[in-house]
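Schema walk-through. Below, the input block comes first and the output block second. Nothing else is stored per chain. Lengths vary across the set, and this one has 371 residues.
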Amino acid sequence: MTNPGPIEYVGQQPPKKPKYPKTPKNSKTPQTPRSPKKPSRFAVLGGIAGILGFMAALAAYAMLGRVVPSTIAAYACDATACSTEGMVVAGWLVIALPAVLIGATAATAKHVDRTTRRILITLSVLAGLVALMFIPGRHRDMSDVVQGPGADQFIDGMGWALGALGASVAVALLLAMIGRKAPAVERHYSVVLGVAAAVLLLAAAPVAIAKTGPGSMSAEDVFPAVLEMNDDILTRTAVGDQRGCTGVLADESLLNRENCVLTLHAAYRTDDSDAVASLWAVLYLDDDTADSVRDGLPKVTSDTALTVFSTSRSWVLVGISEHADGATITSTDRPWVMWPLRQVAYRFIGYQGGLLIDPDPGDDIHPRTAA
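--- output ---
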């Protein structure tokens, strides 16, 4: 058989492939439906546990919000002896710390490893949650959230820190507007904003300290060298303050039943008698603690000294009246020997409350000239 030339293939079509019938899309052939997968018992229990856990976390956060703020303020008072500077800085830190952590996390997110980034995020969240606990709720203000000695100074520190953050937001908006016309500002926007916010936040602390009224009291401030009350002149013979309350009472465990922060002490003599009045004011972290300590103090009896216990807010007052020579105190002497102590106590209470008044003499306690 001769081999056909290439001209023979002109006009010929390649052989067709056999076609197979396609299955119609809407086939009437019945198909067995797949039964839906039933959720496992563990998946259901896990979902319920997750919901209950979330609700429990919200409840726990709400309960902690009533305890944590005052606890933080109390620890700050204990650590700083309730000094104005210490309490203002502590309140400032409540706001400044989460702000710094969030800023640091945002600035270094692309430059640190995953572990460091997670640590920064975790710390930022925790600090932010603590700061949110200081937000007053319904029918509450900041004085209800933060209580105890130095609370006003603590709140002032928070307020100045919040003011600095507000100023930082204003700076951010201003830089954004300037950046539209100044490319250099737009290129370095993050750096300029970070520096400006840091300066504003740091500057808020010393300004807050300077503008905030004194929170702590020193014995020198409370008890003057010469005290004039009810036309009497009392001369100070001793003054001092100390951390804690060691040495105030012979049995130190009585006042140390709870954590005592600070003790102020002063002693006076009068110009019309030989009576000597000594007062110790012991500071505790809240009013209830002071009342509890006062209730646990036993009555002290002595022929040569009269000991009186009382409270003024979060302070326990220990007062002792006696003759300068240690003589026995008779029933006739008792009213005027106790009189200088009442005057010194009124001085302390009035200074603490910002209203200095003279005590009124009575039948049981009065000056010697009225005897």
